[in-house]
Amino acid sequence: MKLSPLLKPGCLALAVLLLASCNTAPQPAKPRIALVMKSLANEFFKTMQDGATAHQQAHAAEYELIANGTKDELDVARQVEIVEQMIAQQVQAIVIAPADSKALVAVCQRAQAAGIVVINIDNKLDAAVLAERNLHIPFVGPDNRKGARLAGEALAQQLKPGDQVAILEGVPTAFNAQQRKAGFEDAMKAGGMNIVSSQSASWETAKANQVAAALLVEKPELKAILCANDSMALGAVAAIKAAGKAEQIRVIGFDNIQAVRQLLKNGRVLATVDQHGDQLAVYGIEYALESLKNKTSPADRETKADLITAEQTKN
Fold it and tell me: Is residue 149 part of a domain?
């Protein structure tokens, strides 16, 4: 049987190549990286987004950035939905600051199963859940316990043993909230302070204002409030001012957002911790690019957390 002229050996090879190219999904010229954050109403995550955007603009030839966030800190379902959308869009990498350390593991696993590089920043995914699923997702971020302890130690220097203090926690299911609470406790116990209350204000200013206002009535001898983020510190400061106790009660926070810096200067906030939110997503993005390039799964990487007091805000 003779081959048709169109099916001569040389033409046949060409046809096979053309057919293969038609059946192969077009690959993007450069990787698309999705940044999935928590509440963009929180200045910290807006700063994170701005830092990531500036980095992408400076490296526009290397990657594309898709940045998303939720409306509030507790919207876990919306964050899961965003990750699922990124899977459907077939991005090459997802850099995520999870709203919940356990609830986001499953969807991150689905992303990995789809061949997407996943990098965890800011709030660490739960180690036990990851182990249970035989899953490795590298974490890039600070040691929150260490950072909180630094702020707590600065506060302890202004108090005396036996003084009453209270802690405003973040979302209890978030690993960074748990670690910051532990760091505060480490410092207060070492200094001999009396922790008379520790309760969640869900990272939110309004909720912190309500909780702090109630505390000031219930605990008239209170000397300090340790807040697991600066948004809650803002709420605590407002409650203290409204109660006429600005000279009596110290406040510390965590994040070093712009809104708290003037309060540091005038003494309304004693200290905060800078985890360099403008660079935190950038660290994750750079790690994702490294992983895509080298086809490796990198190890966890600790980033810096610095104590900020009035001294650092003078310049």
Answer: yes
